[in-house]
């Protein structure tokens, strides 16, 4: 694999994102098999994790649905070949107009606040709507990605269920789904199962449901021996409880998830070249041809990406701080053991498939990198590296 990655860096340049379709397919099948105990399962890939249209087309070919958070992601999904009815739209804080535009496309609407719910239900009572509930259960590895707690901006509080039911009754709207999302990097499946019980209890208030969406947030390993969500155990326990609920509800419902990171994180790597090896009184810096403009997660979330020197994988390990070229603190790793680094070496950042390219920017007027998909063993360029013309695109020069 290292040899192929080095060839990709040589052919397409660095920095560059590389994704492996085989790993994506493996993760998709693993999740599907974990819940084979339910009669109807729908996996809606969370487009925000990695939204390149070639990746979306891959998921469509697998039979996946699509979870979207913006009208632009909806349009990408439709262009990638997803049927409108296989897309769910779960925005937060967007205008009624945007929700109405998406509804006109035939996409499943998911509403997470009472104000928009009442407005939409009053104007469009016959349009099927899913409701996002906030179960007030804290899950997730970082406050920025824990979205189910009591002070979260996401979802309608379980304490507001009486008001929610009054709105539904007054408008006569059609509620066909119930949804929750507690947060990302879930470690304790018992906490997830506890939140699921709250969702089941809430679902009893609605008589015409077609599905219950349990969100996602499954943790993936970021290093050897790292803890990950036990998908198989969760699948066994939640499937059993879901089937029991369907029996008492009197109808076979669809169990839905919206995985993103779980499906694509481990499938992606980020390759960057070492520009300078710089030693100070106490630190050896490996300075690369990238920065948090391309990979912001370590600076934003404190996330740890394993870094491998694929130019010298068997070299003697030394301690390095890997830093970028952005003109402020721009650190990928502090005091990390990595095989000896020389200028010109290619470093490989693992777990770079989710929330990496999609959060890239042009900060410092740098170009966003290229993307490559390895499919059936062959490397395909799926996004060209930006150029200076792209930086100027949409800018308007005025006479000064």
TrEMBL record:
Gene3D superfamilies: Alanine racemase, Lyase, Ornithine Decarboxylase, Chain A, domain 1. GO terms for molecular function: diaminopimelate decarboxylase activity; pyridoxal phosphate binding. The active site is at 327 (proton donor). Pyridoxal 5'-phosphate binds at residues 217, 355. The modification N6-(pyridoxal phosphate)lysine is found at residue 48. Its EC number is 4.1.1.20. It comes from the Bacteria. Substrate binds at residues 297, 301, 328, 355. Residues 23-265 form the Orn/DAP/Arg decarboxylase 2 N-terminal domain. Pathway: Amino-acid biosynthesis; L-lysine biosynthesis via DAP pathway; L-lysine from DL-2,6-diaminopimelate: step 1/1. GO terms for biological process: lysine biosynthetic process via diaminopimelate. It holds the Pfam family Orn_Arg_deC_N. Signal peptide: none annotated. It catalyses: meso-2,6-diaminopimelate + H(+) = L-lysine + CO2. It is an enzyme of class 4 (lyase). Belongs to the Orn/Lys/Arg decarboxylase class-II family. LysA subfamily. Homodimer. PANTHER family: DIAMINOPIMELATE DECARBOXYLASE, GROUP IV DECARBOXYLASE. Specifically catalyzes the decarboxylation of meso-diaminopimelate (meso-DAP) to L-lysine. NCBIfam families: lysA. This is Diaminopimelate decarboxylase. The lineage of its organism: Bacteria, Pseudomonadati, Bacteroidota, Flavobacteriia, Flavobacteriales.
């Amino acid at each position: 694999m290292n040899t192929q990655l080095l060839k990709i860096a040589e052919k397409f340049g660095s920095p560059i994102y590389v994704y492996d379709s085989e790993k994506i397919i493996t993760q998709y099948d693993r999740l599907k098999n974990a819940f084979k105990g339910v009669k109807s399962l729908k996996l809606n890939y969370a487009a925000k994790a990695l939204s390149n249209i070639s990746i979306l087309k891959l998921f469509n070919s697998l039979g996946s649905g699509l979870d979207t958070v913006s009208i632009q992601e909806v349009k990408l999904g439709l262009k990638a070949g997803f049927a409108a009815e296989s897309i769910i739209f779960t925005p937060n804080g967007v205008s009624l107009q945007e929700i109405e535009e998406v509804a006109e496309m035939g996409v499943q609407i998911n509403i997470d606040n009472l104000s928009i719910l009442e407005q939409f239900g009053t104007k469009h009572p016959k349009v099927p709507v899913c409701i996002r509930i906030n179960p007030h259960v804290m899950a997730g590895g970082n406050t920025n990605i824990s979205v189910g707690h009591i002070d979260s901006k996401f979802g309608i509080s379980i304490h507001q269920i009486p008001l929610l039911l009054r709105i539904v009754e007054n408008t006569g709207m059609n509620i066909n789904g119930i949804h929750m999302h507690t947060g990302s990097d879930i470690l304790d499946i018992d906490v997830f199962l506890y939140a699921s019980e709250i969702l089941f209890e809430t679902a009893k208030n609605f008589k015409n449901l077609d599905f219950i969406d349990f969100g996602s947030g499954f943790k993936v390993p970021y290093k050897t021996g790292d803890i990950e969500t036990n998908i198989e155990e969760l699948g066994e326990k939640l499937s059993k409880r879901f089937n029991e609920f369907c029996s008492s509800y009197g109808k076979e419902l669809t169990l839905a998830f919206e995985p993103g990171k779980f499906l694509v994180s481990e499938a992606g790597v980020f390759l960057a070249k070492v520009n300078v090896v710089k030693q100070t009184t106490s630190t050896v810096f490996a300075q690369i041809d990238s920065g948090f403009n391309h990979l912001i997660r370590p600076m934003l979330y404190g996330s740890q990406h394993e870094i491998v020197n694929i130019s010298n994988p068997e070299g003697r390990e030394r301690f390095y701080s890997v830093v970028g070229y952005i003109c402020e603190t721009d650190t990928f790793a502090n005091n990390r053991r990595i095989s000896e680094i020389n200028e010109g070496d290619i470093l490989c950042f693992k777990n770079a498939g989710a929330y990496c390219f999609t959060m890239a920017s042009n900060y410092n007027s740098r170009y966003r990198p290229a993307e490559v998909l390895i499919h059936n063993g062959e490397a395909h360029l799926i996004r060209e590296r930006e150029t200076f013309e792209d930086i100027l695109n949409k800018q308007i020069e005025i006479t000064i």
